Amino acid sequence: MLVFLQSFLFYNKNNESLITVSVYGAENFSALRCRTTRIEYIRRGQPDAGFPLFETESLKWPGFVEFDDVNGKVLTYSAQDSTYKVFDLKNYTLLYSVSDKNVQEIKIRTSSSVPLKILSIEDGTVLKSFSHLLHRNKKVDFIEQFNEKLLVKQEGENLQILDVRNFQLTEVSRTEFMTPSAFIFLYELQLFLTFRNRSVAVWNFRAGSINVSSILTGKCLAKIKSGNECKEKKAWKFQNTVAEALEDITALYYDEDRDEIYTGNRHGLVHVWSN
Which residue spans traverse the membrane (predicted)? Predict the structure, then answer.
């Protein structure tokens, strides 16, 4: 007796398992059969140690099953009773179902923004309500609040630091700031610590500044910072902001004849600051 089998594989990173979805020739390839096997069982040479999934569901054509890796969900459709069901990919428990013959299609997607509210700790009144835009179909690694700063990190994206007072947005390159396993916020020092593997890093929210002081008295005569309306001559065709120009300065020179300050940063850009 010949048994024809077709199947595809899905790696479930939520619980380190391999899901197979198969159709059999004995059923005219019309019904989907799902099974999960933990990776550790496969490594032990025990591929039969898994168990079937969604046995109570009628997944005959045109029924289907879809796996949403981004949101950690499974969507099934039973054509027999026109019912969509959403399951949790971690433990395959049923979350909710949608039964409506008028529904033609369901799409699972990640929201393009996250709604946020800032409440008064004293009486709970809403001080500010806003939405922060997200990159579509990218997992949110974390959203942390530190005083007036909001830290948002998505998988494979730059760290975003939003000042909720004026909505000024600062980004830190994903190559410099990788998602940590834990945070410690030092509120009095306006610093925060990140822990990743065996490394600890210290971060602050301050952009750089250039201070001009008197040699005789040490008194600060002038300050160049990101909030200043100072005259900045852009370097060639690069049109970056004042805050960006003050980041990671590697060289500084003062021209007494022209009364100008020249700075260079790690990006290889030279900026001229004139009075």
Answer: none
Label residue 247 exposed, middle or buried (CB < 10 Å: 0-12, 13-18, 19+): middle
Contacts of 266 (CB under 8 A, 6+ apart): 248, 250
Phi, psi angles (nearest 5°) of residue 157: -120, 170
Q: What is the pLDDT of residues 85-140, one digit of tens each?
A: 889 999 999 988 888 676 655 655 556 777 777 766 566 677 888 888 888 778 88
Instruction: Count how many Cα atoms sit within 13 Å of the Cα of residue 200 in the half-sphere of its side chain.
Output: 6
Note the maximum CA span of the chain: 100
Residue 114 structure tokens: 């996250």
Beta-bridge partners for 88:
73
- The total number of residues shown for the chain amounts to 275
Question: DSSP code of 216?
Answer: T
Predicted TM-score of the model (pTM): 0.42
